[in-house]
Design a protein that fits this description.
Order of helices and strands: EHEEHEEEE
Number of domains: 1
CATH class: Alpha Beta
Strand content: 15-25%
Distance between the termini: 35 Å
Number of strands: 7
Strand order of the largest sheet: 1-2-3-7-6
Largest sheet: 5 strands, mixed
Radius of gyration: 14 Å
Helix content: 10-25%
Structural class: alpha+beta
CATH topology: Muramoyl-pentapeptide Carboxypeptidase, domain 2
Length: 125
């Protein structure tokens, strides 16, 4: 299994991702491998014009390219992640529903993966 980073994406930013975001990341790499799809990460934690939330800055999101994917493969990916990970997905600004994967256009069409904020219990602190 392998993934590629778009030029300018810092591999060290993986260390800034929350545990739930890392779960999404690992499963996305695996999903691409199982389905023989290109796996290109286009953004991790950096600030990019056009972002409407703080999920990237907080290490709760990453973006991936859909280049080389068919419409069916894109739909399959969204459905898979939104069904499997609704318990850790961030709430979407668009419809107020938990969505782990959003396919949208901000500086080009791409996947946006997002996890909700993790809150520690008294036992974990």
């Amino acid at each position: 299994m392998t993934f590629h980073l778009k030029q300018g994406v810092d591999i060290q930013d993986l260390t800034k991702l929350t545990p739930n975001t890392l779960i999404l990341f690992a499963d996305f790499v695996s999903f691409c491998y199982r389905n023989k799809l290109p796996c290109v990460i286009t953004s991790l934690c950096e600030d990019v014009p056009g972002r409407i939330s703080s999920t990237h800055r907080e290490g709760r999101a990453f973006d991936a390219s859909s280049g080389g994917w068919t419409d069916d493969e894109i739909g399959k990916c969204e459905k898979y992640f939104n069904e499997k990970f609704k318990d850790i997905a961030a709430i979407s600004y668009i419809d107020n529903l938990p969505r782990a994967c959003i396919y949208h256009k901000v500086n080009g069409w791409h996947f946006h993966f997002q996890a909700r904020r993790m809150e520690l219990t008294d036992e974990e602190t």
